[in-house]
Amino acid sequence: MSFSAPSILQRIRNRNSQVAVIGLGYVGLPLALAFARAGFPVTGLDVDERHVTLLTAGTSPIIDVSNEALAEVLTSGKLQVSSDADVLESADVVLICVPTPLSKSRQPDLSYVESAIASLLPRMGSGKLVVLESTTYPGTTDEILASQLESNGLKEGTDFFLAFSSERVDPGNRDFPLHTIPKVVGGVSQTSGDLAETLYAAVFDHVFRVSSARVAELSKLLENTFRNVNIALANEFKQICDTLGASVWEVIEAASTKPFGFMPFYPGPGIGGHCIPLDPQYLVFKARLSGFEPRLVALADQINMEMPRYTTFQVMELLNRRGLPLRGARVLAIGVTYKPDVPDLRESPALPVMEGLIQRGADVHFIDPYIPSLNLLDHELQGIASLTEDELERADAIIVLTAHNAFDMTLLNHHTAKLLDTRNAAGRVPDSVAVHGG
Known about the structure:
Helices cover 37% and strands 13% of the residues. The longest helix is centred in the middle third of the chain and has 32 residues, at 213-244. Strand 9, helix 12 and strand 10 (363-367) form a beta-alpha-beta unit. By secondary structure, it is of the alpha/beta class. The radius of gyration is 24 Å and the shape is globular.
């Protein structure tokens, strides 16, 4: 391995290279903590002053980072937190962990990545290793980032080093701590890949090196497109089962007894989180730019995006069966975050379901131990304190949207006539609510 700036390799191996993490959210903060615990001096950079103030005080807003763990690395001096981009000047390693959302037209929005690069560029110097962790479309690292970072006369692979390593964070998942999840790494150049592999090997149990940044970008998109497509199959199969008067939950349970060739995926009111609803669209965008129409991926997205509307119509059908109109009906939504046991509303399908009910005149209430209030369509909704028999009795329709473990779901079995359990959370095989058309 030969380097124009060989000292960075030695500093990484000695764990005294200065690491800067741009973006201290669900990805960046756990990563910063992991490097600090491994002995690296780490500076976390975030543009949100309130977020920085909170972290500096030792309060973590991220479910996977406890206040105690944060305080430990702050007290030791291994982690510092700042909103001043000048900290990038002294960094040997810069890890970019900023959001990559979709625009309103469902096109990739790289504005956060571009802002991070704009902050870094005047403080670039030579000898830095830059790694993009934010999920994006193939070619972002070697086409866009490399070009921008070379605009000041530096050369990738000689004066600075650039790689992509996909984040694989699953918020709230206690079974797979960050360091146990294999880290996929690909460099724009061989030297960059070598450096990034050495860096992550200091923190992660296993690093899987691929031939290029583009392969690493594609691997991340395949992971979540795989889930998106199979969830779409489960969602469409639910609609088929509803039409035919069968329970999709029982069908999946039966199919799952096959010990090979089948992997169960489950339907729901839609898909949520920052990965599954968004990442496949980055793949679709790049494929279309290259002249290929990814029909299956696009169709899966369409099916999943239609599920909130389908769920709203299921509530209407449930009320019709009870002789009640939707307008004026008291509907209790149980759970509104995008997944169980996390305080995260990003892309939660519960929100468009509730908005659809509100638009049609329903009196919507919700309960979620992580979300005290919501503002939907200019309606300020205050969450109900706890799931009780009284609240269930008062409701004309009950809809389970997110099955938090804090809920006593056995209570729901006393109210099956007015229950729409989109997660099969009550632990039973419910009667199908058939919805034809619409």
